[in-house]
């Protein structure tokens, strides 16, 4: 599968592949604010080490924001197509004490009615889409895996052995993040919309749902359009790093990113798959690919 017409890089300049052999970094590098499927907390420091000098940082598939914590500063841009997720990040930035108070109240209600209260919140979220409820559900659902029905309703179940993070610890993390993301811009929209003003000297980290992976949290990735956006970014002088495919155990999720689009490919060991543990049974090692256009 290739992008039509001439791309930025000459086909004869084949990209290189590197392998990161050291073990994955501690999750402690990034405070666990929002549990999110595919979080890069275990890889954040190593991915950030590949970031070039840049003027402004963009993360258009924001999720749990692990790289935003490592690379973001005032003026950085976080974006996502899922409105409650963007609303959550804006709440952390602008109204952190309300989020802290809401979580403490919901945590106490869960302890008094477990698991009943979880399903009360789940029903409410599927009607009202409150960002505070999204946070609560992700903190208390099975393995923190975001999962939606075809109609867009959150449908993961309560994690029977999980009481949720203690409110005191959650409050400390929220205040840390709130100070960290002050002055950042959070945009609602797809990857093309939220990076439309990126230009020479800017840097993007992209972590879309894997092509070919059916366990996505929302919608499908239009791979051909995505390729064209990557090419356009490169033509505009924007540097980017992309987590796009990899392997779990003996199963490869390799979607053959066109070699014209990137210059280097790095293989990162990311630990064990929580999704596989919940959905498929065996616990398998995950290796992920990081593509760089510089």
Task: Report on this structure.
Helices cover 34% and strands 17% of the residues. Helix 9 links the parallel strand 5 and strand 6. The N terminus is likely disordered. Strands 1, 2, 3, 4, 5, 6, 7, 8 and 9 form a 9-stranded mixed β-sheet that branches. By secondary structure, it is α/β, with parallel strands linked by helices. It has 10 helices and 9 strands. It is globular, with a radius of gyration of 19 Å.
- How many helices in DSSP terms? 10
Counting DSSP E segments of at least 2 residues, the number of strands comes to 9
Say what oligomer this is: single chain
| Main pleated-sheet profile | 9 strands, mixed
In one word, what is the shape? globular
Mean pLDDT: 86
Order of helices and strands: EHEHEHHHHHEHEHEEEHE
Task: Give the fraction of residues assigned to helices.
Answer: 25-40%
Approximately how much beta-strand content do the residues carry?
Answer: 15-25%
User: What is the first-to-last residue Cα distance?
Assistant: 22 Å
Classify the secondary structure makeup into a structural class. alpha/beta
Spans of at least 5 consecutive residues with low confidence? 1-12, 21-26
Give me the Rg, rounded. 19 Å
